[in-house]
Amino acid sequence: MNPMLEFARKKFSGKKVLAVLSSKGGVGKSTLASLLALSLSEMGSVALLDLDIYGNSVTKLFGMQNKLHKVSKEGIEPFKLKKLSIFSINGLIGDRYLILPGSQERSVVESFMALSNVEEDTVIIDMPPGMGEELLTLTRIVKPEAIVVTLASKLSIDVVRKMLEYLKESSIRTRYFIVNMAYILSGDRKIYPFGSVEEAENLSKLYNLKLKVLPMDPEISKFIGQLQYYDGILKKEIKELECLFSDLKK
Amino acid sequence: MHEWAIAMSVIQTMEKWAKERGVNIMKVVVSLPSLSMLDLDIMRDAFKILKKNTVLENSEFEVRVRDTDFDCRNCGRRFSLEEIKRQLSEVFENYGEENPLHLLPAFVSSFARCPFCGSHDFTSELSVLVDGIDYESDA
Ligand SMILES: Nc1ncnc2c1ncn2[C@@H]1O[C@H](COP(=O)(O)OP(=O)(O)OP(=O)(O)O)[C@@H](O)[C@H]1O
Ligand SMILES: [Mg+2]
Ligand SMILES: [Zn+2]
Question: Which atom number of ligand 1 is nearest to the Cα of residue A214?
Answer without folding.
Answer: 1
